[in-house]
Every structure is written in C-alpha cells, then in structure tokens.
Design a protein that fits this description.
Elements: E1 15-18, H1 36-42, H2 50-61, H3 70-74, H4 81-84, E2 89-91, E3 94-96, H5 98-108, H6 121-133, H7 148-165, H8 176-180, E4 186-188, E5 191-192, E6 203-205, E7 210-212, H9 214-224, H10 235-247, E8 257-259
Parallel strand pairs: 6-8
Antiparallel strand pairs: 1-4, 2-3, 4-5, 6-7
C-alpha cells in the first residue's frame, strides 16, 4: 500500500518559476532540458560514459561463455530493432519490460545468476545496446491483438498506471502529474522538471554515476516524494512504465541518454 496524505495537506516544495531558457511544452524529451555542458557531453561519443555500457553490450551479444549468446538466436542486434519500442508487453499472463525479457533470455541460456535483476551490469549493457540500435524509431506500445482476455488484462494494467500517475502519495502529497504535467520547465532544487517521457532510457545520471533503467528512476521518484518505495520488479512499476510508454506514443526513442 502506498503511503498517502489527505488532500489539502501538501507541504511546501522548492519548485521555482520558469527560467527563460527552459521550454514548457509537454511533447519534449528530457534531453531538451539539459544544460549545455551535459548536452555537449551526451553528444560527444569519445567522452560520453554510456559508451562503456555500449561496448560491454556489444561483447555480451556474441559471448558464448556459459551458454549460447544472444547472436546465437537473433543473429545481428538490428534484428530486434523494431521490437524495442513495443515494450512493456503482455507475455505469459504478466506485463514485462525489455530488461525483464533480457533477463528471461539470460536465464534460459544459463547466463543469469539467481540474484540477477534489472540493475545487473550485463542486463543494463544489453538494454543500452538495444535502445541505441532502435534510436529514432517511434514508441509504439500497444495492446495484444489476438486474445480478448489478454487485451482486457493489458488495458487493466494501463488503467492502473494512469491512475497511479495522478495519485497523490507520500509525505510530500504529490503525484507524478503535479510535476510532469503542471510544472514543466520549473526548477526543482538543482534539476529542471521535464514532461517525464521515458524516451532516453536507460539513462546515465550524474547523481548516480552509473546507468539505470526506467524502474530505477521510478523508484527514486517514490523516494523523492517520501512515499513507500516499491521493491524492484513490483507490478506497480510495470503498470506505471506501461502508461508512460503509451503516453509517449509517437515520440522518437533517443537511445540511452545522460541526465543530471
């Protein structure tokens, strides 16, 4: 159960007014809200730290140690380019994201350890490689098309994600909507609020000094509003990711990106 406060008891936050250099429109990715220095770092392949994960992902794609490689089944990584922009998907009666699918494949091939999760470095590296390969494609997360029961289940999870986006929670008594719909372009401590579109994941956050998934960022937001943080892999996180990806429909995937 998520910790919430009654309506009307919103604590004072440190959100400040729009600064002239930041846009306020809702159809922009987080990249439009980067300061010039970080944007230059992102655009410099020689300095961008994400290149380390891309190199590792390229090696992992063809690694046959401890089992067949990704290439053994899929050949070139480009073969999955179109699939990347369709996750989360409804698979075997549950909603999974791309990192879940990577982990499922690693388990089938005998490469995954029992405690490996979405933050496993090889999972992150393969996710980064796949997202980089799909760069420029439009997000196209849609319901299953064959079985009505699966369509209904998918829609239920989408509805739950949409409800969560507007639900006040935590000691801050804020919802996702308060920041990412109503305060775009305003300063929040050292950050600038973007519309929250997940078009640039996995992201290298300077505050993390590492790469992280949509799940990790969502869990950080729960912490930020001082709400009970869902554990890794919680269905709540998949529901919210589904809603955010559907909300970003038609926007281009930008590949792994740098954020503050």
């Amino acid at each position: 159960m998520l910790a919430t406060q009654p309506w009307g008891q919103t604590p004072t936050t440190s959100i400040t007014q729009h600064s002239p250099q930041w846009p306020t429109t809702a159809n922009l990715s987080g990249q439009a809200f980067l300061p010039p220095g970080l944007l230059a770092l992102h655009n410099d392949p020689g300095s961008n730290p994400i290149s380390l994960w891309l190199d590792r992902g390229t090696l992992a794609w063809t690694d046959t140690a401890n089992g067949p490689s990704c290439a053994s089944c899929h050949e070139k990584v480009e073969s999955l380019r179109q699939a990347v922009v369709t996750y989360p998907r409804w698979v075997q009666a549950r909603l999974i994201n791309l990192e879940d699918q990577i982990q499922n494949c690693r388990q089938r091939s005998g490469k995954a350890g029992p405690a490996d999760g979405a933050d496993n470095e090889e999972v992150l590296a393969l996710s980064a490689l796949l997202h980089q390969t799909a760069k420029g494609l439009a997000w196209n997360v849609t319901a299953p098309t064959i079985k009505p029961a699966e369509q209904a289940a998918w829609q239920s999870h989408l509805n739950q994600g949409a409800a969560l986006f507007t639900q006040r929670m935590g000691r801050m008594n804020l919802s996702c909507q308060h920041c990412h719909d109503q305060n775009i372009g305003k300063q929040l401590r050292a950050d600038v609020i973007s519309p929250g579109h997940p078009t640039g994941f996995p992201v290298y956050r300077m505050s993390w000094q590492g790469l992280g998934t949509v799940e990790r960022r969502l869990r950080a937001c729960f912490s930020g509003v001082q709400a009970q943080m869902p554990p890794p892999g919680d269905p709540v996180l998949r529901d919210l990711e589904l809603y955010l990806k559907v909300r970003a429909s038609g926007m281009p995937l930008e590949g792994p990106s740098i954020r503050r």
